Amino acid sequence: MGSMLLYRIKALCQQQNITVTELSKLLGFSAATIIQWEKSSASVDKVKLVANYFNVSVDYLLGLTEISTKADEMFDDPQIKTLQRLRSNMSSKNRDKMMKLLSIQFEEDFPKEDEI
User: How far apart are CA 93 and CA 97, in angstroms?
Assistant: First the structure.
């Protein structure tokens, strides 16, 4: 798990044009703290600080999800709430149909870069 955590942190640092060492210092850690997480466990409190700094979820940093948005932000979105309300009133067959339709539309409107 530590290697995924470090991989995600390095990628986020690169997007922000800072080094992992700079991030450590910004968060009040010793310079090598985050780098050490590749071989040792990170404390939950420190991982939360990193997640908050980058405005991503802890699950995303740990590699448990590909969705970086925090759940509370996602569920505060009125459109997501509407979809969830609609979904909760559907049969499982109709939920599957809705997801297939959404997937088809997303693939059409937002093709992957290698398909462009």
Answer: 6
Burial of 10 (0-12, 13-18, 19+ CB in 10 A): middle
25 phi and psi, to 5 degrees? Answer: -65, -40
Query: What is the rounded CA–CA span in Å between residue 110 and residue 115?
Result: 10
Q: What is the per-residue pLDDT for 56?
A: 92
Confidence of residue 28 (pLDDT cuts 50, 70, 90): very high
The 10s digit of each residue's pLDDT in 106-116 is 888 877 755 54
The reply to whether 28 and 81 lie within a common domain is: no
Token representation of residue 76:
């505060």
Q: In this structure, how many other beta carbons lie within 10 angstroms of the beta carbon of residue 44?
A: 9
Q: Across residues 78-95, what is the average pLDDT? A: 83
Side-chain-side CA neighbours of 88 within 13 Å: the count stands at 6
- Is-above-0.85 flag for pTM? no
In the chain the first and final C-alpha atoms are separated, in Å, by: 34
Residue 90 structural domain: 77-115
